Amino acid sequence: MKILFEAGAPSLRRARLAIAAGVAQIPLWLNLADMSARGLVPTDSSATRRAAAAVCLGMAAACLTGVHLFTSRLVRSVSMVSSSASPSVSITSHALFSKPLEVPVRYLHTTEAIASSSSSSSPSRSANKPAFVILSDSRRRTNMMLARDGRFPDPKTFDALFLR
Fold it and tell me: pLDDT tens digits for 16-34?
């Protein structure tokens, strides 16, 4: 199995920070929802208390959803699974409890060349370039983010497979 991309330490820190921030906010929103439902927050009616509790529970769900979407789109590694007539790659994300996703190469594409941006295996981030390279899956209509500070062992092979 040939590795096409591996995330660097900053990418791992971003994922861990997002998970920690999301998990840290959950008790806050649940506590506010409990206080609103019990009437510890001064409001006029029970309907207002229920509405405030529902808003707090909604915010807790939104935090968890945002963290899940961010970490599931942030790619940890891309590896070549097969190099036959129809090659496929295995994509591993930073999401908790996620299994590697095996996708045929014909469905994946990017619009940015990796090999031309730098001659080294780790393209540096310049002032006008974003922090992530977007890898689009046309079959699922989703985008995955590859951190530019990650390691591309063979950038020419990466470009040959995905650049369109």
Answer: 898 899 889 999 999 988 8
